[in-house]
Amino acid sequence: MKLEKPVVEIKGFGGTLGLLLDSEALFDQVVEELKKLLQRTNSKGFFRGAEIFLKGDRHKLSTEEFERLKRILKQEGDLHLKPVAAEIAKPQPEKEVPPEVFPDAERLLSPEQSLNAEESAGSRADVEAVPLSNSEVSPFHQELLKAEQNTISESFPSPKENPAENPAKKPETDDTPEEDLFFIPNMKTSQSLLVRQTLHSGQSVRSKISVVLMGDVNAGAEIVSDQDVFVLGTIRGMVHAGAGGNRDARVFALRFQPTQIRIAELISQPSSEDKKKAQLAPEIAFIEDDVIYIETCWKLRV
Amino acid sequence: MGEAIVITSGKGGVGKTTSTANISVALAELGKSVVAIDGDIGLRNLDIILGLENRIVYNLVDVVKKRCRAKQALIRDKKNRQLFLLPASQVDDKSAVSPEEMKELCRELKEEFDFVLIDCPAGIEQGFKNALAGADRAIVVTTPEVSSVRDADRVIGLLQHHNISASLLVNRLSVKMVEAGEMMSKEDVMDILAIDLLGLIVEDPEIVVSGNQGTPVVLNEDAPAGQAYRRIAKRLCGDWVEVPSFEQKKGFFAKIFGR
Ligand SMILES: Nc1ncnc2c1ncn2[C@@H]1O[C@H](COP(=O)(O)OP(=O)(O)OP(=O)(O)O)[C@@H](O)[C@H]1O
Ligand SMILES: [Mg+2]
User: B10 to chain A: nearest residue by CA?
Assistant: First the structure.
């Protein structure tokens, strides 16, 4: 599949935001795509009054058109659009420095976030800090939200997090300490549940998102996930990846001695012969041609 | 305020009662005041191992049903004045007491004693739940056998759900068999169970002999198991003494799984 060049892009350039427009696109198309982008990313909660600079070499805009984009960005993204001149006026490096802070907004934002951001929205002078401070919070928000969707079987104590204390409800004020977290641009991420214990017989973890386990899955214990399962230890029990039917899901472990591995609707029962042959090396289980294969794996491929 | 410790295992016959008796005696020998509760209602044994069978008047069920006061039911040990037994009823079953009643009893006893040790019945049903109810921490006993370790693992999971921290007692380890790769080593067991090791008791015929005589093996200075139980008591008192290690030539799993 050929990837189409996006009509409208918002990117980070060394700590400032830039609006990139496809010079071939019609203005109406630009407007439409910009609205879509802003909606999709719930950018209002994300940018909170940040400045954004038009990357002028992409498109020649009339004053009218510039004003229209400015209005849309203000209303739907809480962004202050500045002409290219402003960018030059500021002591910014001429060349596009490799972006370092602006993550893929779409991935990091949740609708919940935009709700509370309404109250705290306000113009921020410190443009550089905007993407930083927000991106710092977002993955955690999402994890917490997603964690609620996960069911961890009743006998298993649910994670300590309390929905009432979801940070999404906490007012994000400027005096919350900002950690120096750096994200690479367009970073490829996905949510996972990190479990920090050995799962003992009778314990079961069920999750819609990927599960990373720091410990073993003992015989009689199980992990069931709609996505991938990574066990940084030994699997002696049952692991089911892609439980919702995702045949691309995989199971990784440092040592495979499972009673069963399941991926999507397929079941693999390693025989004691297999266990004998099993090497002491990290392995990965995946589906190919309707068969579950378990192979040595020194590098996880995406 | 004392500490209530439940001695449990899941699987039967792995040495819970033996361990409860010996650890109780060893703690008392260290100068602690100890009460050992026989939680195995209907199948009482602890009195026999401690050699106090003939002195039973009242029992655990009498106490929780308020047919007598706790003090009246406690049997003082013949040799050590610091040690008491609260025997189980032989005529009732596990449903004769409730977890709430056990909790209340342990709370009461902890005010008077440094240690309250609870001998848990096998299984994970009512009797297990009762024994757990009043406990602050647990000692999980296992032998180095796959089935015993599996049941111990299950129990460790359940203890976690009750927020009771557990430490491990590996019992009946045969150094010879471990060396020959015919038995799991303590490292193999710990690798699976992933909890701290409290102690290691080797297979020791003296345990059977002393159990029959009603003089716990811990009183025998020369028996390896007796020495091990004394070390465990010290560890429970916060005095960390090393667990002796035995060399393993070829691993048990190496043999089983051909590694
Ligand atoms: N280290 C040991 N060496 C030799 N024999 C032992 C050892 N530990 C326990 N035994 C023997 O194993 C048998 C079972 O021990 P014990 O009664 O303490 O187990 P238990 O876990 O309390 O059993 P139950 O589940 O029936 O209550 C006894 O005959 C005892 O003498
Ligand atoms: Mg017993």
Answer: A201
